[in-house]
Design brief:
By secondary structure, the chain is mainly α. Helix content is 75%, strand content 0%.
Length: 412
């Protein structure tokens, strides 16, 4: 094990004023510009998004595919037995608590928001199959698996592994700059390292705000559905966002071993309960059969999907950038946040344990969730004539899961 750098002994916290102040200034400036001229800001960012998609979509796809392959190679090699910490370090959390927190790291509002909406969107407007057909339904589930599956968790696992390795083996601060130690050495404590952490902070906030926006719309739609709110209201959305931020701050203050762990376990119990309810009171046999077939199609097409840029189908370029590239950028923007959390809770685990735990356990749950909710919705549309559900998914994605639950007992 390499001896810890001299500077590391002086760093007891990842808090850094030179990172915090510039990062907040950048974010506040962007917020002010968007508030003063929202239309102009929208045009500017959309133009930037289109330019990046037009020139670098291939790079996003190739990079994430390489991440996935690299992780499997490392885990299968002799390096997989390296412990993340001193050789005699043992895990801080039990295996059950660790899995619950890994699950909570990625199982959030995204699966609730898109678990019904995305399969329905791809069913009505698939990338290749004729819309509204059984082939479109199969392609919809395979595509949704691809967007939420192995590749997304590979991005998180790679960042988490890098930070855990350098943080606990080299005793560096668990921040993004430490991942660049082999290239920068002691310069991670100077300007290059500070710039890296500023960029990571901004990317994390951008990713968080996207997810928080989905979450606020989802909860707002649910409260309207049960009559707790009379209609759309900007003030109520702001209140939901502030309430969510407050809960997150309280759980963070209480520490990983208390608030975060308890919320993760509660999150896991509630999610599994809802998932089992839909499975057991819905078309159970159909869902289980579809889940089996979904896995088969996903595994047999994963290599093709991993490298498919639609270079020979230029008419699909907009779909490709709006879906796959958007997701890959979303996962990458979340990677500093989720990766640091995975690293923090994985001290004492081996490299192989971290990779297997992140790639298999949350991945298995994610695929099961998507099949149970996605195929329940597809069954309603394909076999029971609930065509309004497809229209809702396209026009009001935040309402899709509630409209699905309307077909189940005790929906309110």
């Amino acid at each position: 094990m390499t001896s810890p750098p001299h500077e590391a002994s002086r760093l007891r916290s990842t808090w850094s004023l030179p990172v915090f102040v510039p990062g907040i200034l950048i974010l506040v400036t962007l917020l002010a510009v968007c508030s003063v001229n929202p239309d102009g800001a929208e045009r500017f960012f959309l133009a930037g998004q289109r330019w990046v998609a037009a020139h670098f979509s291939w790079f996003y796809l190739l990079a994430v595919a390489i991440f996935s392959i690299l992780l499997l190679v490392i885990a299968a090699s002799r390096y997989g037995s390296i412990r993340l910490g001193a050789d005699d370090t043992r895990p801080e959390f039990s295996f059950t608590s660790w899995l619950a927190m890994l699950f909570a790291a990625g199982m959030g509002i995204g699966l609730l928001y898109f678990g019904v909406a995305e399969p329905m969107m791809h069913y009505t407007a698939p990338p290749l199959a004729p819309p509204g057909t059984p082939a479109a339904a199969r392609e919809a589930m395979t595509t949704t698996f691809f967007h939420w599956g192995f590749h997304a968790w590979s991005v998180y696992a790679l960042v988490g592994l890098v930070l855990a390795y350098f943080g606990f083996r080299y005793r560096l601060p668990v921040t993004i700059r430490s991942g660049f130690y082999p290239l920068l050495k002691h310069r991670i404590y100077s300007t290059p390292g500070t710039v890296i952490d500023i960029l990571a902070l901004c990317a994390t906030i951008f990713g968080l705000t996207t997810t928080l926006g989905f979450g606020a719309m989802q909860l707002h739609a649910g409260l309207r559905e049960i009559g707790a709110l009379s209609g759309a209201s900007f003030q109520s959305l702001v209140f939901i966002i502030l309430l969510s931020i407050g809960a997150a701050v309280l759980s963070s203050i209480s520490g990983v071993g208390k608030g975060v762990r308890y919320l993760s376990q509660g999150n896991l119990i509630l999610a599994i309960s809802l998932m089992l309810f839909v499975l057991l009171t819905g078309p159970t046999v159909y869902i289980l059969a579809a889940f089996t077939e979904n896995i088969g199609y996903y595994l047999t097409h994963i290599v093709e999907l991993s490298f498919r840029t639609f270079a020979y189908e230029s008419t699909k370029e907009e779909w490709f950038t709006s879906w796959t590239i958007m997701y890959w950028a979303w996962w990458i923007s979340w990677a500093p946040f989720v990766g640091m959390f995975i690293a923090r809770i994985s001290r004492g685990r081996t490299v192989r344990e971290l990779v297997a735990g992140v790639l298999l356990i949350p991945l298995g749950f994610t695929l099961a969730w998507l099949s149970i909710f996605g195929n329940s919705a597809l069954d309603l549309v394909l076999n029971q004539g609930a065509v309004a559900l497809g229209k809702t998914a396209l026009e009001q994605p935040s309402m899709a899961i509630y409209q699905l639950l309307e077909h189940y007992p005790a929906s309110k």
